[in-house]
Amino acid sequence: MAFLRNLSRKKIFWPLAALVLLMCFNLFFTPNFFRVEIKEGHLYGNVIDILKNSAPIMFLAIGLTLVIATKGVDISVGSVVAISAGVVAMLIGGDLKGVPKNPILLSMAAAVLVATLAGMWNGLLVSRVGMQPVIATLILLVAGRGIAMVTTNAMVVWLYAKPFALLGQGYLLGLPFSLYMVAFLLLATMLVTRRTALGLFIEAVGINPTAARFAGINARNIVFWVYAFSGFCAGISGLVVCSTVMSADGNNAGDGYEMNAILAVVLGGTSMSGGKFYLMGSMVGALIVQTLTTTIYAFNVPPEIAFLVKAVVVWVVSLLQSPDLRSGMAGFLGRRSEGGKEAAA
Amino acid sequence: MSEQAPILEMKKIRKEFPGVLALSGVDFRLWKGEVHALMGQNGAGKSTLVKVLTGVHRHDGGEMLLEGRPIRPDSPLAAQKLGINAVYQEINLCPNLSVAENVFIGREPLRLGRIDWKAMREKAREVLGRLNLSVDVTRTLSSCSIAVQQMVAIARVLDSAAKVLVLDEPTSSLDEREVAQLFKVVRKLRDEGMAILFITHFLDQTYQIADRITILKNGEFVGEYEAAKLPKLELVAKMLGKELSEFSQASPGEGEKSRTASVSAGELLRARGLGRRGGVAPFDLDLDGGEVLGLAGLLGSGRTETARLLFGIDKADCGEISVKGKPAQIGSPRAAMALGIGFCSEDRKNEGIFAELSIRENLILALQTKLGAFRFIAPKRQVEIADRLIRELGIKTPSSSGEAKQLSGGNQQKVMLARWLATDPGILILDEPTRGIDVGAKLEIMEQILNLSRAGLGLLFISSEFEEVLRCSGRVAVFKDKALVAQLAGPEMTESGIMRTIAGGR
């Protein structure tokens, strides 16, 4: 019990508990939910699908976690995904024999660069112009769709360059390749934020911007680069999205992703009011979002009710994040264990 | 005036907040056609009293009579309906709307269910004319000067039903000419029979405008006086809660006296003609290593503004600074830190402590910013530094990993002090480091200040408690009405000396 109580104080506990609960539900009610088969040397199954499908949201959630930690938000990431997908598709080109117009790696780099520039634009508006984050990034949410459609000439561009399919469809050692990319980006971000003082500075700016300035932190630079990084992450997400379907659709690629990514961050324990951030939590949050979607599909829930189910689950998990409720439950566990000790004595 | 019954009478008002008695039995009377100044130091209960009057808070005891009838407004709107209106320091208007719209916001004249713009403009001109203000009412408010905005805020609450007008620090962001303009309006309203409650930190302005003064201290009623019969010195003494006789005998500060007589050479910090419009008038200031310079003055006298200039929070618009003999540009707190300056804000909660960060992170933050983000202090080293500081300053906490918000005010104050000590500063500016903490912690903080000066630091010590300033400082710079008015050293350094200086040398 004491172990459980300590665990329940850890921030990651509640999102993890929610995920496990969701999994348990599937274990009992969805046939073959956990069945994993090996076909053609790859792992196949619902669980693998969930992991694979959550990769695009996970990239976004990594960037958004830092943005939200500074008490900001970036709702333009979905549109930036479309821009990145459009740029990489146009650079590689729709040659039917699969001969890329430009080197694939170079095209990818260019797409991510454009996405990063888009993030820097957001950062400029928020940190220098002083716009509210929602409004500043709303501009790119709207304009970004237009930009994406302009890059693809308002058409859906199909790609046939085989090697590019690796990102979204390929496997490495039996697991989807995109998962390795997520792991790499996550690890790199954790290293940079936790093995330097950047993470501390980001949290300080989110908790108390005035005090941060008075303590000598260049808050404006921190905010600027955090948005730039969010654009970078959206760029990578765009590559994977494009590669998964081997096409770029300026109108639909990444549509609505921003809400799922924000949801993942919040479910993971990072508060919209800024401050402490939890990158691992955001990953678990992304898994919750994806598992929920998959579960709803597996159950053939009518689409009109699916949204309601999603809303209820989100509401419950958010409630679990509330400090009041949590301290209440931790207290409950505490009492139980003390009672147990007394009984033993 | 006094023969009539007062229009407003507040009797034995009591207001309790959890753990704090904000008002204990405060009396306040207001007559028609007078300007009544409410005076008191920070925490005296002025704003609580106003909030009770205007329905923001409800009193727990006592009674309020308006024109002889008991009232108990439960919201600002209810108070307005009774004829009690307030204009606050931070103007609550819509800067992006026109002057006329601001005057009539929420009660626009209607015709056939639509806003009658013509009538609105005409009425707005009429109301503003009552204040001798001729301004194009179709202009957007933000294009008007602060003084005009202030008067629009007053015009807004002037209608036939208005009986009592509360002006809460209306002059704090006005220049002299604008103050004169505002006062003309206030006098006109007074002569028309309005009862005006006026709050300001400017002593001179109080005497310019007020007919009567009520003084509060620590939530208690000190007295009600006619302005003409209350010498300024006595007013200052009463606000501080001292008897005149008490400080007529000099009370010299302890120790450090030998150094006090010598005039500082300003070898560590030297400011010449440094000032900022709307902040503090140009001043000269010198500070040596090993010296504590006290900045004394009432709240809002320009002490904090001085500190903000020296730490680069606000930019000076005139004058120059040199640090260690070299001319310096201090354009940001970062620049100030690079010159070895540290600053503990008086506003712990909003400008100092990071409530959700751990005590350890709070302690090492300034050192980390000084080193830069990429010269990360390893967690093990962080714990060492934090533990050392916790030990040295006697911060009471079981460990450095708890959240800073769990600490008491005094311990949070020590954390802020320690945060700067970790950066090994040459100059430390402490703004009200002893405010709101218990007596024991106060003594410890003052002990630390003296220790630091012995170690060679130059310190600026700001406090409203003159006793504390005198006890710690070698010299005292006295501030009044946003200007440095005198520097006291040696035998002049007494509470009565400071008060006389503030009261205007009488």
Q: What is the domain tally of chain A? A: 1
- By helix and strand content of chain B, what is the structural category? alpha/beta
Average pLDDT number of chain B: 84
Strand content of chain A: under 5%
Reading side by side through the largest sheet of chain B, how are the strands ordered?
A: 6-9-10-3-11-12
Which series of helices and strands of chain A comes N to C? HHEEHHHHEHEEHHHHEHHHH
Number of strands of chain B: 22
From the spread of the alpha carbons, the general shape of chain B counts as globular
**Helical residue percent of chain B?**
25-40%
Q: Report the helical percentage of chain A.
A: over 70%
Q: What is the CATH level 1 assignment of chain A?
A: Mainly Alpha
Strand segment tally of chain A: 6
Annotation field: number of helices of chain A:
15
Structure characterization notes:
- Chain A is mainly alpha-helical and 345 residues long.
- Chain A is 72% helix and 4% strand.
- Chain A has one domain: Orthogonal Bundle (ABC transporter involved in vitamin B12 uptake, BtuC).
- Chain A contains 15 helices and six strands.
- Chain B is of the alpha/beta class and 506 residues long.
- The longest helix of chain B is centred in the middle third of the chain and has 16 residues, at 176-191.
- The model of chain B is unreliable at 247-262 (pLDDT under 50).
- Chains A and B meet through helix 9 and helix 10 of A and helix 12 and helix 14 of B.
Question: What tags apply to this protein structure?
Answer:
heterodimer, A: 345 residues, mainly alpha, ABC transporter involved in vitamin B12 uptake, BtuC, two-stranded antiparallel ribbon, two-stranded antiparallel sheet, 4% strand, globular, disordered C terminus, B: alpha/beta, Rossmann fold, 3 domains, 6-stranded mixed β-sheet, 19 helices
Structure in a nutshell:
The complex is a heterodimer of chains A (345) and B (506). With 345 residues, chain A is mainly alpha-helical.
